[in-house]
Design a protein that fits this description.
333 residues; alpha/beta; Isopropylmalate Dehydrogenase; twelve-stranded mixed sheet; 10 helices; 12 strands; globular
Length: 333
């Protein structure tokens, strides 16, 4: 392989998984390397034959070699059969899973700084390898020994955490317990300190109902559940704002008053961040013993292999993984 100067910050590189080969993961890794060369060292775990024609890559035998790579560094993991853009293959499922496990292993050993994952296709993994997890987040929590984790979506202008995620709206009030909300807020608070270098985090918390219930006129969850949780956490020293009406939390002046927003359900959190930065949002798993980020999009089978995929979210995810990993490393020294 051709080599250049080592990375200036001398940190280990980020481990990037290919994700579902039939999706856009293989299409965006080359452009991401070009965008981040000299700034964020990373290496890909996957099958080099799945990369589109024309992508310059260099096979490596150890993550440290990625620090000096002039071309996309690939730690080879053979998938056994060619990629078919847009069409998942059952025999690839076990290799997709193994690549994730390898990234976590290398991060745990200190050979990689953080994990960044390209999108997977849950049904393909279930059909091809009996994958028993709803998605990446739950699988990574399992690999971390059952860690309590939460999902954050982040961009330059906003960080949001949904307390409940992929459930019907009708199930949100019964799922949103005091214990769950307290755990989500505590995990977010700790991550803002340890991963985002916010020593005194300010966290805004949305209400569940319109106008945060308006004193009980539009619902009692704020009075009976959310406010008592916030008061208890404030007594522990957490700086919390709310419960607030979600329709006034996300304009620019409001966002300047907090470091992260806790929302009660999926769309309450994701609509504002996707409005602010649709292409550059990053999915971050908080509560793991290692840093993990991912682009905030799916496999996009419909455009895989066409050259139309936008690498912006992957670039942002790799950059954030590097920044968070650097903060963790600094805290250890």
């Amino acid at each position: 392989m051709t080599t250049g100067a080592p990375s200036a910050d001398s940190l280990p590189p980020v481990a990037l998984t290919m994700g579902e080969p039939a999706g856009i993961g293989p299409d965006i890794v080359g452009p991401a390397f070009d965008a981040l060369k000299g700034e964020v060292p990373f290496f890909l775990i996957g099958d080099p034959s799945h990369l589109p024609d024309g992508v310059a890559f260099a096979e490596i035998s150890a993550p440290s070699e990625a620090l000096m790579a002039d071309h996309l560094p690939v730690l080879p993991h053979g998938f056994g059969s060619p990629r078919r853009p847009g069409l998942s293959q059952a025999d690839h499922a076990q290799h997709v899973i193994a690549a994730i496990e390898r990234a976590v292993e290398l991060t745990g050993s200190g050979e990689a700084l953080a994990v960044c994952t390209n999108p997977i296709h849950k049904k393909a993994l279930k059909d091809g390898a009996g994958f028993a997890f709803p998605g990446h987040t739950e699988f990574l929590a399992h690999l971390a020994g059952g860690a309590e984790v939460v999902m954050m979506l982040a961009c330059d202008g906003l960080r949001v955490v949904p307390a409940t995620i992929h459930i019907p709206i009708a199930e949100v009030p019964s799922t949103l317990t005091r214990d769950l909300l307290a755990q989500v807020i505590r995990t977010t608070h700790a991550a803002l300190i340890h991963d985002f270098a916010k020593p005194f985090p300010r966290i805004a918390v949305a209400g569940l109902n319109p106008h945060a219930g308006e004193g009980g006129a539009m619902g009692y969850e704020e009075i009976e559940m959310i406010t008592p949780v916030l008061d208890g956490l404030r007594a522990e020293g957490l700086d919390l704002i709310g419960p607030q009406s979600a329709d006034t939390m996300f304009h620019a002046a409001a966002r300047a008053g907090y470091d992260a927003a806790i929302c009660m359900y999926h769309d309450q959190a994701l609509i504002p961040i996707k409005t602010i930065d649709f292409a550059g949002g990053v999915n971050v798993t908080l509560g793991l013993p290692f840093v993990r980020t991912s682009p905030d999009h799916g496999t996009a089978f419909d455009i895989a292999g066409t050259g139309k995929a936008d690498p912006s979210s992957l670039v942002a995810a790799l950059r954030m993984a590097h920044q968070m990993g650097r903060i963790r490393q600094k805290r250890r020294t």
